[in-house]
Write a structure and sequence with these properties.
Its main location: membrane. It is a multi-pass membrane protein. It is found in: Membrane. It holds the Pfam family MFS_1. InterPro entries: MFS, MFS_trans_sf. By secondary structure, the protein is mostly helical. The protein has one domain (about 30-260): Growth Hormone, Chain: A, CATH 1.20.1250.20. It is built from 15 helices and no strands. Helix 5 packs parallel to helix 9, helix 7 runs antiparallel to helix 9 and helix 10 packs antiparallel against helix 13. It is elongated, with a radius of gyration of 22 Å. It starts with a helix and ends in a 9-residue tail after the last helix.
C-alpha cells in the first residue's frame, strides 16, 4: 500500500495534465515551486519525526523506567508545544507579512532538537533534557506546519485552496507512513540481533521472548545482566533511528528555500482578488 500510494503521486500529475476532463486542481499549481516545496517539507518532516518517535514510548518505559502516564506526558510535549505556539506564529507572520524567513527560523529548532537526541539517547540522559528536546522539535515543526499552509494559500487562488491543501495533507500522511516503515525496519532488523549479542549466554534462548514483550523487558531489576543487555540494545537501535531521522533535516531546509518570498500583507493590493476570508 505504501508503494502504491507513492506511485500514485506522479500518476496524479500525468492524469491532471493529459487525461482529466475536469481537473481536480489546475496543473499550474502542480508545478508551482512553493507548493511543491511546502508539500515535500510536510512529508519529509513527518518522515524525520516518526523515524525516531515511533518506538519512543517503549524506550521511555523500559530504559528510563517511566510510568505509562509520564511517558505519555514526555511524548506529547512535542505536539502540545507545537499547538500552543501555533497562534503566536500566526501573529508573527501577520506582523511581518513574511512566511519564508519565519519558516527558516524553524530549522535551528528542529536541527537542535533532533541532533541533540543523538548523544542524549542513552540511559544516563536526564529525563528533563528529553522533555526540552521534545519541546524544541515541537516549536520547529509547528513553525513549518503553519508557514507551509500559509505559503500554499499565498500562491493559490481562493477557489483552489481546498484542493491544494488536500494534496498537502496527503504528503503529510505519506511521510508519516514512510517514517513508521523506516522505524519498523530498523527496529525489527537491529533490535533482535543486538539483544542476541548483548544477552548473557544463559539468556540467549529468550531473545525472541524478550523482544516481543515490553512487560518482560520491564520486569528485570536494575543491575541484572539481562536488563543491562536490554538497555544497551535499546540504546543501539534508538541511536541509529535518531541519526537516520536527522539526515532528513537538510532536505527540509532545501524545501523551505524553494518557497517564493511573498509579502502576504500586500496580496490584496497587488492581486485585487479575495485571498482571505471574513469572520464577521
Amino acid at each position: 500500500m505504501l508503494v502504491i500510494s507513492i506511485l500514485c503521486v506522479p500518476v496524479l500529475y500525468i492524469w491532471e495534465k493529459k487525461f482529466t476532463p475536469v481537473p481536480f486542481i489546475k496543473y499550474k499549481y502542480l508545478k508551482e515551486r512553493t507548493i511543491i516545496g511546502s508539500c515535500l517539507l510536510y512529508g519529509i518532516m513527518f518522515i524525520s519525526i516518526f523515524t525516531w518517535d515511533a518506538y519512543y514510548q517503549s524506550y521511555l518505559l523500559v530504559v528510563h523506567r517511566q510510568s505509562i502516564t509520564h511517558a505519555g506526558y514526555i511524548l506529547n510535549a512535542f505536539s502540545l508545544t507545537s499547538s500552543f505556539f501555533g497562534p503566536f506564529y500566526g501573529l508573527l507572520i501577520r506582523w511581518t507579512g513574511d512566511f519564508k524567513y519565519t519558516g527558516l527560523a524553524g530549522v535551528p529548532f528542529v536541527l537542535l532538537g533532533t541532533a541533540l537526541l543523538i548523544p542524549y539517547r542513552s540511559p544516563s540522559a536526564p529525563v528533563g533534557v528529553l522533555v526540552v528536546l521534545q519541546m524544541l522539535n515541537g516549536v520547529g515543526t509547528g513553525i513549518w506546519a503553519a508557514c507551509g499552509q500559509i505559503s500554499i494559500m499565498a500562491v493559490t487562488s481562493h477557489q483552489e485552496i481546498a484542493s491544494v491543501m488536500a494534496i498537502w495533507n496527503l504528503f503529510g500522511s505519506i511521510g508519516a507512513t514512510v517514517g513508521y516503515a523506516i522505524a519498523g525496519g530498523l527496529w525489527n532488523n537491529i533490535m533482535p540481533s543486538a539483544l542476541n549479542n548483548n544477552l548473557p549466554d544463559y539468556a540467549k534462548n529468550r531473545t525472541a521472548e524478550i523482544f516481543g514483550s515490553v512487560e518482560i523487558q520491564m520486569s528485570f531489576l536494575d543491575g541484572d545482566p539481562i536488563r543491562d543487555a536490554i538497555v544497551a540494545s535499546y540504546a543501539d537501535v534508538q541511536h541509529k533511528m535518531v541519526i537516520t531521522g536527522a539526515c532528513f533535516i537538510p532536505l527540509c531546509l532545501a524545501c523551505v528555500l524553494a518557497w517564493k518570498r511573498i509579502n502576504i500583507k500586500k496580496l490584496e493590493e497587488e492581486k485585487g482578488t479575495q485571498t482571505k476570508g471574513q469572520v464577521f
